[in-house]
Amino acid sequence: MRSAAFVRSHAMQLIQRNPQLSAYLVADDVVDHRHPLVRETAARLAAGTHDAYTYAEAAYTFVRDEITHSQDSGDLAVTWRASDVLARGTGICCAKSHALAALLRAEGIPAAFCYQRLADDDGSRPFVHGLVALRLPGSDLWARVDARGNKPGVDARFSLDEERLAWRARPEFSEVDYPVLYDVPHEAVLRALKTAPDRPSLWPIYPTEL
């Protein structure tokens, strides 16, 4: 896995796969924001905020800091449904993105799934990294955020002006910032998460590119 390194990612043009903004508010089997636990968590976070921006920041910080990245913590469970990620308190980057999207959509903030293709420091072992893009009500701009969880050397932050992601894509190692904003998680990622019985079984079937 790529080692920790803080960078600011460059701005990029993001493209909605679904032209209907309402699609990025939908509840489904993965982003189950009508689930009682998701609603309860969203209400608790909203109680300490006063507008959409501060709520979005609170939801982001909660998922980044309180939901552990299972690779970092050593948890062998594979979660994929937003309510299960919250209940278990762990998940890989894409699973954490599902939880963050659910919390944002629960409070009427459009949330999209977007991805990077990253690799180890030497360019080996590529993997798909999951992010969330959000669009505050009244804005026509999407902003990507990375809630995978910080660790020594990784300092991702909530920022809608200048991206503060965990890692920058390095073209020299065939790393990619995928520009597409998905209203539902990418099928290749979701299929791997649903299939793997545990995290060691996940990595051999996890997509290396989209």
Helix content: 25-40%
Alpha carbon gyration radius: 16 Å
As for the number of domains, it is: 1
Mean pLDDT: 92
Number of helices: 7
The low-pLDDT segments are 2-10
Assembly state of the chains shown? single chain
Query: How many strands appear in the DSSP assignment?
Result: 8
What CATH calls the topology is C8orf32 fold
Protein name: Transglutaminase-like domain-containing protein
Domain Transglutaminase-like: 40-147
What does this protein look like?
The protein is α/β, with parallel strands linked by helices. The chain has a single domain (15-205), classed as C8orf32 fold (Roll), CATH 3.10.620.30. 30% of the residues lie in helices and 14% in strands. It contains seven helices and eight strands; from the N terminus they run βααβααβαβββββαα. The strands form three sheets. A four-stranded antiparallel β-sheet has the order 6-5-4-7, covered by helices on one side. α2 (52-66) runs antiparallel to α5 and α4 (82-88) crosses α5. The two termini are 18 Å apart. The relative contact order is 0.21. Mean pLDDT is 92; it is low at 2-10.
